[in-house]
Amino acid sequence: MTNDTTSTEQHAGARHRHQAGPAIAILRGGTGDHVEDVVATLVESGVTAIEITTNTPRWREGIAWAVERYGSAASIGVGTVLDVRQLDEAAAAGASFAVSPHLDAELGERAHERGLGWYPGAATPTEIVRAWQLGARAVKVFPAAQLGGPAFLRQVLAPLDFVDVIPTGGIGVDDAPDYLAAGAVAVGLGSPLVGDALTSGDLDALRARAGRLVAALDR
Length: 219
Hints:
By secondary structure, this protein is an alpha/beta fold.
């Protein structure tokens, strides 16, 4: 864990860059009955970073299953981490990264202790820099679309180009490349990608959206 006296340049030089791929699929809600099928469809479609949130039924079991099934072929993480207990449970299930909608230094400390990549949420330049100084592997810029989309990101990263950011919130499948072009290391996509697959089990539509996303990011 870094401290307040460490320079921004030292933080930038020591950072291990985000390794989960250009898109993180966010699985939130549903009944809990379709988590495994949704994960399998996404990974087999080429979306190999999956975040299962703590307000998804059976999220612990989903993470454990995905890690056992896909091992090093996919990065499986936990989202909407609000306290240390949730982070510990995710680590025990095999998660490799933890995402929060907010910035909490205690969560960052525990994530480092447990060997998890830490992606805290931030909205302002002050919050983004603070998250980076506290040791975030990448900063979740949230809610990205409502903050101003790629144009906002481009302006913020002009002076903060040393920070790795993952914009999340309101990003459509066809919008994702614009965020990468604006300087993001990855994008987080929830319902625009997953749709109602966690509730209805509609994997065909999910597969089509995932294929469109992968094709767009490959261009």
